[in-house]
Specification:
Layout: E1 2-7, H1 10-18, E2 23-26, H2 39-48, E3 53-56, H3 68-84, E4 88-91, H4 102-112, E5 116-119, H5 129-136, E6 142-147, H6 158-171, E7 174-178, H7 186-193, E8 197-200, H8 216-226
Parallel strand pairs: 1-2, 1-8, 2-3, 3-4, 4-5, 5-6, 6-7, 7-8
Helix pairs in contact: 2-3, 3-4, 5-6, 7-8
Pfam families: CutC (PF03932)
Keywords: Cytoplasm
InterPro entries: CutC-like (IPR005627), CutC-like_dom_sf (IPR036822)
């Protein structure tokens, strides 16, 4: 089982590594759903982490539909992420019609070199998720899709996540399940949903709040309940 933990500051990176995370998603602007962090934070996180750091690539929180000016910003930020030595990045883009923006995605992937990519929860705004998963599988650099199976918390969408996970296995992708997971119940959730990667944000923090640091007891509970 892979446990990915959101880090929003340098101290989170050290705590995630110390308390048993397998991968970090580095973001800023968490109140807006996560935005691209500063170059300084990216560089420090990569330098200090003992586990892979995947960096959010998102220029604003207005939507997942990006114009040319947005792509100019995205491409520059992607260069910073790559030059800092991050393991990968987290990105998603949609068309006005609510489908995957393949043209934009291909621009980003062309610039990304060998970086690992996670398609983020823009996926949960797509109506036909199985068709979208088949589209994403056309791009070998995309390793996983972060999803809660729709707009509800993941524990409320287990049948859909199970369907997506089964299809992802056929396509050579991974489903990274996140949104609303709790350390004490994540083991039964993962078994029921058929996932091998889970994503935690506030669920592994003191008081369940991003205002508080990562909680070692909650991290231990997550690992224990996942059998890892």
């Amino acid at each position: 089982m892979i446990i990915e933990v959101i880090a929003i500051r340098a101290g989170d990176v050290e705590a995630a590594c110390k308390f048993g995370a397998n991968r970090i998603e580095l973001v800023t602007g968490i109140a807006e759903g996560g935005l691209t962090p500063s170059a300084g934070l990216i560089e420090r996180a990569v330098r200090t982490a003992s586990i892979p750091v995947n960096v959010m690539l998102r220029p604003h929180s207005q939507s997942f539909v990006y114009g040319e000016e947005d792509y100019q910003v995205l491409l520059r930020d992607l260069n910073v992420i790559r030059e800092a030595g991050a393991a990968g990045f987290v990105f998603g883009a949609l068309t006005e019609e609510g489908d995957i923006d393949r043209a934009g995605l291909e621009r980003i992937l062309e610039e990304a070199g060998g970086l690992d990519m996670t398609f983020h929860r823009a996926f949960d705004e797509i109506e036909d998720q199985e068709a979208a998963l088949r589209t994403l599988a056309l791009y070998p650099q995309i390793k996983r899709v972060l999803t809660s199976g729709g707009k509800r918390p993941a524990p409320e969408a287990i049948p859909q996540i199970r369907r997506l996970s089964s299809l992802a296995d056929e396509l050579g992708l991974r489903i990274l399940a996140g949104h609303g997971l709790k350390p004490d119940t994540v083991g039964s959730f993962a078994a029921s949903a058929g996932v091998r990667e889970v994503h935690f944000g506030s669920g592994v923090r003191e008081n369940g709040s991003f205002d508080r640091p990562i909680d070692p007891e909650r991290m231990r509970a997550a690992r224990r309940n996942l059998g890892s």
